[in-house]
């Protein structure tokens, strides 16, 4: 029962955390998984704490994680937490190894509370389920790419091209590399705006 400081009632802490919409997993300094609220279990497709695994090592065995670029992290967020690392909003896809069809996208951050000597006494992994957001982005990406009409997306802050579809490239004859990242005002894909001199000559 060593994951909270002396004098803190563990049952009260659980009651506070239990009703949060965010998922919370409490980990002991010895890397045992001590507790998780219902939201955290749901975000793992789990019905009980046992399905997460008794330890951080078992968790890694039961769940496969990867970043959005399909690269597997060297250390899972829960492993970084167990090492006492503080981090914010690490986005990972999480899938059960026994049931790969059960998958979620988590935004994870750590809460590390230490005693006066600097030793971790409370380790909490806080999770947000951002699956709907990324599913919507994937649907948009597919629709944008498949649209035969020319389409381009520009960033408002600096008017640089962020995305272009096949229709746009076929219309202009440019390659994607020649367009993406370039400013609209400096891009040769668009006609230069008429100057006062050229308008007067017209």
TrEMBL record:
Domain of life: Bacteria
Record-linked SUPFAM superfamilies: PYP-like sensor domain (PAS domain)
Pfam family, one: PAS_9
The PAS domain, residue ranges: 154-187
PAS fold-4 domain mapped to chain residues: 20-131
Protein name in the entry: PAS domain-containing protein
Source species: Methylobacterium thuringiense
């Amino acid at each position: 029962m060593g994951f909270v400081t002396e004098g803190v009632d563990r049952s009260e802490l659980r009651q506070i955390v239990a009703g949060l919409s965010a998922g919370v997993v409490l980990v002991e300094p010895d890397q045992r998984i001590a507790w998780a609220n219902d939201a955290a279990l749901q975000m793992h497709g789990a019905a009980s704490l046992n399905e997460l695994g008794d330890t951080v090592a078992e968790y890694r065995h039961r769940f496969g994680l990867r970043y959005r670029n399909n690269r597997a992290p060297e250390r899972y967020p829960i492993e970084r937490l167990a090492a006492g690392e503080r981090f914010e909003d690490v986005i990972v896809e999480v899938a059960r190894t026994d049931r790969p069809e059960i998958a979620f996208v988590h935004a994870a951050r750590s809460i590390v509370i230490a005693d006066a000597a600097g030793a971790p006494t409370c380790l909490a992994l806080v999770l947000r389920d951002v699956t709907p957001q990324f599913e919507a982005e994937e649907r948009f990406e597919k629709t944008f790419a498949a649209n035969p009409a020319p389409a381009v997306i520009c960033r408002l802050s600096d008017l640089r091209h962020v995305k272009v579809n096949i229709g746009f490239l076929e219309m202009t004859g440019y390659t994607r590399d020649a367009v993406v990242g370039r400013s609209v005002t400096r891009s040769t894909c668009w006609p230069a705006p008429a100057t006062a001199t050229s308008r007067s000559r017209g």
